Amino acid sequence: MATSVPIPHVVALDHATLLPPQIQKILESTGYRVTTRPQAIADVDAIATLAPDVLILELGPLTLVDDWSLLLHVALDERTARTPIVVCTTAMREARVLSEALRDMGVAVVAMPFDPSLLLNAVRDGLRRGHPSAADGGSAAPGPAAMG
To answer: What domains are defined for the chain?
Structure first.
């Protein structure tokens, strides 16, 4: 009798209107369950209620202070502290300045616009850290090759 593997839940929060459908399509085609929300209305309570296995946040150049605050609250709150975080950003200069802090928090950074395989690899890496049995998206089919 086969054991069913839980489908990992990925929550994507962002500021743009095109990013969530793009992320949702990429991740759902790989076997993940995806919830998207506008980042502007998100807070730690809302994120904890969604109970993501991986959280994707956008770090925007014009919203850096608010985005950084949300990221810190998620990283420090006991309900979400163990949730792997992937930051998608066009603000690479700012991400480089914050790189040591992001690395210390275990946050993966993916530059936008992104190659879908980079996003998938970052999500899989996060799942391996937190949910090793769910790292393949609940599917036996192999995903894109890791990019070196």
So the answer is: 10-128 (3.40.50.2300)
